[in-house]
Amino acid sequence: MNDSLKLVNEWAIKNMVQINPSKSQKLNINLPPITINNEILNYTDNLKILGLIIDSSLAWDGQISKLCGEIYGTLSMLRQTQSLIHLNLKMHLIKSLIVPKFMYCSEIYMGCSRSNWHKLNKTPTYIFEKLHLPRIPRNRLLNLPPSKCSKQHMNGFFVRGPRLWNSLPVGLRMLDSMSAFKQSCLTYFASQKTQN
């Protein structure tokens, strides 16, 4: 890791970009000390990168709490204008102000814990229905959202995610342990890759 960071630092110096070690952090995931410019990076239990809060256990507690706070804050502001705007405009505002908050990096943290999923499920149902993300028994196949013609839509998480889930063997989907599920998925996808 330090060798790679040394190369990054050399590139930065060559291109007149300065890396600030005091603003750099290392997520506490049992790695040896990491240095930039001979300065040891601080350990942290969570860090924020491009608005995504990552914690060392990948439980996504901070991200889900932030997401719920942002959504309820936006809903609170919209409630103040509910008698002044038409229903179509309300739905447009929800689609433009709230749905993107759910969608940003959702591919990463949708495997969160039950308690975090419960927090997300407290979101008003009219918003959740727009997302096609109902928590369902793992043995069921997911329904694909209505298809659109654009390549971007067809390659998006909400189309590719259900397709990928539906392609998993039932036994793999039914595993109780998250760690066993992750390991089995890695093995399954590695075997699929070697077959292709």
UniProtKB/TrEMBL annotation:
Lineage top rank: taxon: Eukaryota
Name under which the protein is recorded: CLUMA_CG008287, isoform A
